[in-house]
Amino acid sequence: MSEHNIKLPEGSIGKQTTTLNLGPTHPATHGVFQNILELDGERIVDATQTVGYIHRAFEKIAERRPLYQITPLTDRLNYCSSPINNIGWHLTCEKLLNIKTPKRVDYLRVIIMELARTADHIICNSVMGVDTGALSGFLYVMQFRELIYEIYEEVCGSRLTTNIGRIGGFERNFSNTAFTKLEKFLNEFPKAWKELDNLLTRNRIFMERTQGAGPISAERALNYGFTGPNLRAAGVDYDVRVHSPYSSYQDFEFNIPVGTTGDSYDRFMVRNQEVWESLSIIRQAYEKIQDMDPSVYHAEVPEYYLPAKQDVYTKMEALIWHFKIIMGEIEMPAGEVYHSVEGGNGELGYYLISDGGRTPYRLHFRRPCFIYYQAFTELVKGSMLSDAVVVLSSLNLIAGEMDA
Amino acid sequence: MGRPVRFNINAGVKLVKEGPEGYGGEGFFTTRLDKVVGLARRNSIWPLPFATSCCGIEFMATMGAHYDLSRFGSERLGFTPRQCDLLMVMGTIAKKMAPVLKQVYLQMAEPRWVIAVGACASSGGVFDSYSVLQGIDQVIPVDVYVPGCPPRPEAILDGFMKVQYLVENESLRRRNSEQYQKLLNSYGIQ
Amino acid sequence: MEYNKAMGLNNEYIQQRLTEKFGDQVYGFSEPHGMLTFEAPKELNLKVLQFLFDDENLRFQFLTDICAVHYPDNKGKELAVVYHLHNLVDNVRIRFKVYTDINQPDVFSATALYSGANWMERETYDFFGVNFIGHPNLTRILNVEEMDYFPMRKEYPLEEQTRVDKDDEMFGR
Question: CA torsion angle for C41, C46, C49, C52 (degrees, to 10)?
């Protein structure tokens, strides 16, 4: 070999396995993370993950920014369902500041969060279909993501990275157009979701590809720190909305779908059923709102919520609060708080330590994707290469949440 | 869900551009070679979506049925750089990812174009931190920048149409010219 | 206080059990916003975690999060490693902190007990430099491998210092 100019790595002649790089840019990895697989023929012997290809240093940036400027950062964590991240951050701030929101605000937040969860599961399930070869299901249900974007636009002005809401409520009341679009969504979406259901759930090809791909037992899942649909597919019914209810989730009746084996098919089915449950929650919230005073959309906290413009022009106090809030000069009380919400992928936690200044002393995000990606090695050892692709897409790994 | 066109019906606005100028007759048409090549290239660009973060989801919406990218000729997305003309970089590029991006760019065959979609790809965006590359033009030459965070699908389509304009009007000798070589050398690409 | 199954697990019971087992080596009990928080010396962190895991009434068998905080003014105890634990059956959360000196930030790794602690500790090492003894693969996870400093410590700036294209005066730095 010495007369050739090829430099081979150590020990590569005697190696029995092939190293395959399922690299950061690959159509199957939805997001940028890398898997280096050791293959023996087609069977996977070992897998090493590399993350950090989109590390944007959120936690360090957050130490420089006052509370409202952190909301756009939280958007970019799980960007498929960004209202959940925003509202979770506002709930954390409200917990630190001891602010109580009125019921109508809670129900509106529930509607927005369940819409976001639906949007996240739409992408995950239809992309699972794409990865196993069924491309058209994706195109049919993405139309309804456009409708959800239109509802977000009515409320906050932007489609994807929403920066929705304020500490204490929403920036503006939901207009009638928003409710009309919500009704249109509730009327038309179940049909399309049923179509995707019919396409994939009892489809023999899909079932054979996904059943048995990447199973995990409940004990191992709990030991790894799995949460969300991946844990529920393994059989544990842990849902933050039920265990530590926030934003008045205790007023709603919904079931938690639970799987048995924790393989990709169970994950698909759990997400599928969760969308039906989310639609039912949205309907319940929408009915409850009809009997409430329609002018309430935020809590009365002048120190943290921008006062109305007429007051800013006429009253001195309102002018001072407006100035202080915009410039970010409001001081937080010192303390530490940990709050978590049920994101699209599991328990999204915010650990906020404040030392009494205008910016947090330390803000840490407990990101579910980061924590369960470590288990990928165990999920995929011994299975075939194509199973690795299916497992990756069924775990719903969002790179923004993984690296933060 | 469609509604009939209501405005500008009688204004004499032509929605479809006529072909390139040339001399034609019954069964033949002569024009300049680079015009024909430009026309063919602009209507069949094969993009490589290098989607890293949130802008990638807006790209998925652009590919969807509502804001259709395939009517511009990009029905087929290639995920391998060897087969694609247009590198669409969508999302934040961290310093860890920059060598990967450069390698993907180097693997593309001439002629190749690059569009930087979103604020993060154009200039680092919101993330002015130690780990984010402040704009992909630090590592590869870029043709079109689309601002926005994330840009609306209409903005992405507008950027794509600007790339189409560049593709159509590019001289056939540009890729071998000295100016282009100097540009590539300034990025360390031979 | 006996464990009253009807009343469930509450913070006084947990505090009492911990002080029974470890005496005054666990200290600093407080309840910010309802979550019991306490500290212990860094040599005991695995013993405390094991006790909370195995005890049949405490059963804190879910590790929610591990992170670290840098307090540059606390001489001798600059880095705090914070464990958030959760008892899923009784729905109780607690927070457990260990402090360590920045010149010798060695803390025992919890990977033998919780497999999920693997990457959480790698992230803590990457950002703060806490050396977890017994960790199977303590390397950088989110930052580039060639980085030679620990960026989340308070003395390092947020922006990259070698950049020449951005004008600091315009960007308010």
Answer: -100
